[in-house]
Write a structure and sequence with these properties.
Layout: H1 7-36, H2 39-62
């Protein structure tokens, strides 16, 4: 099965992917900076991570909503009664 995405959707997904990559890179940079114990590097890495989070959040806000999941739909009938008894596996 193939899907035909619109160019706008592809552009949005590209923006989300790029923002996610920058977010990951900023997290790694912060990890490395914390290992150096250099305050200026740690502060700069936190600033970069904050900016990456904001950019990723903005990219997600522009994305179209996800399709509804069937798992979230209410069950069509009443719940099945439960006996509360465990069943024993068949003897081998």
């Amino acid at each position: 099965m193939t899907s035909q995405a619109t160019p706008a959707l592809d552009g949005r997904q590209t923006a989300i992917n790029e923002a996610a990559r920058r977010l990951y890179d900023a997290e790694i940079a912060l990890h490395i900076a914390r290992q150096t114990e250099v305050g200026a590097w740690i502060s700069a890495a936190y600033d970069r991570l904050h900016e990456a989070i904001a950019n990723h959040t903005a990219a997600l806000a522009l994305a179209p909503p996800l399709p509804a999941s069937r798992e979230l739909e209410p069950h069509p009938g009443p719940p099945e009664p439960r006996t509360g008894r465990a069943t024993q596996p068949a003897a081998a």
